[in-house]
Amino acid sequence: MTRKLALLGAAILAVAVGYVAWTGNTPGSTALVAPANAQATDVDTSSIVEMSLGKEDAPVTIVEYASFTCPHCAAFHQDNFKRLKADFIDTGKVRLVYHDVYFDKYGLWASLIARCGGPEKFFGIADMIYKTQSTWARAEEPNGIVEELKKIGRLAGLENEQIDACIKDQTKAETLVAWFQKNAAADQINATPSFVINGKLVKNMPYDEFKAVIDAELAK
Asked: Most CB within 10 Å of its CB: which of 36, 99, 157, 215?
């Protein structure tokens, strides 16, 4: 199963419009960043670090497109991803590159938290975000969602000041949206999770079928 991107432009617009500035009035509230208005062609995305696992020279490269608010992506990361890591990434056969997809402001906030600890902590934080998706994504909007995401950051060893700085980084948020737009357009992504395996677009599928695709690439 996948979550559909009906139109790439519509997805970007939803993020841009939905990503409103929030300056909660309650003590300890976090001022989140303003709307991302820049077009992808106007934004230098070279500062965005590609999060990856596996050997740089692995014979197979998989680019995963996923959203932190996509239930099917969460299901993939709690099952197939762990099998993929054990069978192929940890054995040096596959390099996995993670590319964010943003359906909404909450997925963007989650990405800012996941990236807050840098490459060393990214996949650990991402695992916690996916594992608890049904909890934080259903919290009270927007305060509850933000607090739940910040809680995940603290569990990962991030300091409150560090978390606040990350989630209020408007430049980073706008750059991430532009990066997502460029990547998704280049690879013709219209659903999540989706995968580009050695340059070929592959839809989400049962693990045995997914494994067969990888094995075929390894056999070349």
From this structure: 36
Q: Measure the CA–CA gap between 163 and 179, rounded to whole angstroms.
A: 22
Range of the domain at 84: 3-22+45-218
In a domain, residue 37? The reply is no
Q: Is residue 185 part of a domain?
A: yes
pTM of the model: 0.85
Within a domain: 31: no
DSSP assignment of 110-151 equals: HHHHHTTT-HHHHHHHHHHHHHTHHHHTTSSTTHHHHHHHHH
pLDDT tens-digit profile of 132-142?
A: 999 999 998 77
Q: What CATH number is associated with residue 111?
A: 3.40.30.10
Cβ–Cβ contacts within 10 Å for residue 207, how many?
15
- Residue 30, pLDDT > 50, answer no
Domain count, the chain: 1
pLDDT digits (tens, 9 = 90+) for 135-175: 999 998 778 999 999 999 999 999 999 999 999 898 899 89
Name the DSSP letter for residue 171. H
Structural domain includes residue 78: yes
